[in-house]
Amino acid sequence: MEVWEDELTDRQLLSREKQQEMLRRMLRIRLFDEAATRAQANSIPGMLHNTTGQEGEIVGACMALRDDDYITGSHRSHGHPIGKGVRLAPLMAELFGKKTGACRGKGGSMHLAVFSVGSLGESGIVGASMPAAVGAALSAVLRGTDQVCLCFFGDGAANCGPFHESLNLAAIWKLPVIFLCENNGYAVSTRQAQTTAVTDVATRASSYGIPGVVVDGQEILAVYEIVSKAVRRARKGSGPTLVEAKTYRYCDHLEGLKFPAYRSAEEISSWRGKDPIETFTTRLCANGEFAAEELRAVRSEVEAELADALEFATQSPPPDPESLLEDVFA
Is 14-312 in CATH node 3.40.50.970? Predict the structure, then answer.
């Protein structure tokens, strides 16, 4: 596995405004998922795969990108478009299945896409978005731009065929892709150690001749720094990087379906002690750059934004029946 060293680290170059935006986006993800869980019983059809606990690696990675860069996601992907800067209202309306949703009510929780910010889509099929990320990167090369694609996937997807095919093709063609494995330790309810022979998914990068890096996914600045370096590497034509963010989901695999106990209360409590939002908030106050009242104001701002999003979703109309056959290939 590879480590990059710079004279001045990326986190030292972060502006005050960007650090505040990092906190804002993490809070948006956390509060959005919590509100969606509460609304599921009466307003949201289907299941929800929340990212509560994983906000640090999502936002840290997304904020290493430019606005015109691409991302692809997985079934657990409410947070990814929020990390890329999408407003909450159209996302909540999408979960509610409304006409004003990001995908006009046709994508739902597992198939969000917001092309205006480069969010190319997510998929309920494990690993399915990885070849799409390679395609987006190839498109950038063929069009002569220096855009990159950040591909989010879980540790379960690392054992699927698209993982190997995508890394192999991207490595051969030196495509500008950052493959980011969100390793939360479980594929549904199965521990990673039961399905994967290696401790770190990132070690597989050596099979394709590309860098593989492990990072603490609960530390937003560490993720931002590593992904920033991978992005620069991709932009200059050096090819893909495999980044593995060690993270954890506090919620169950999905909301609305009970699973037999597969994690101990002690394990969950231990990871809650490394909450990415609490850790980052404490750091911002400790370095003296932010006052506690200022950070509380950010939370109040996000709470108001979320209230508006819920009102927007509730009051929006459902899709017209005539729209059923729109947006289909044939």
Answer: yes
Other Cβ atoms within 10 Å of 235 Cβ, number: 16
- Identify the residue whose tokens are 């560490």: 222
> Using an 8 Å Cβ cutoff, are 57 and 182 in contact?
yes
Query: What tens digit of pLDDT does each residue of 194-234 get?
Result: 999 999 999 999 999 999 999 999 999 999 999 999 999 99
Three-state secondary structure call for residue 131: helix
Whether this model's pTM surpasses 0.90 = yes
pLDDT for position 247: 97
Degrees (nearest 5) of the Cα angle 60, 63, 64?
90
Domains in the chain: boundaries: 14-312
What DSSP line would sit under 212-259, residue for residue?
Answer: EEEEETT-HHHHHHHHHHHHHHHHTT---EEEEEE---SS-SSBTS--
Among 70, 81, 73, 62, CA closest to 149? 70
The tens digit of pLDDT for each residue in 47-97 reads: 899 999 999 999 999 999 999 999 999 999 899 999 999 999 999 999 999
Q: Which residue has the tokens 């908030």?
A: 281
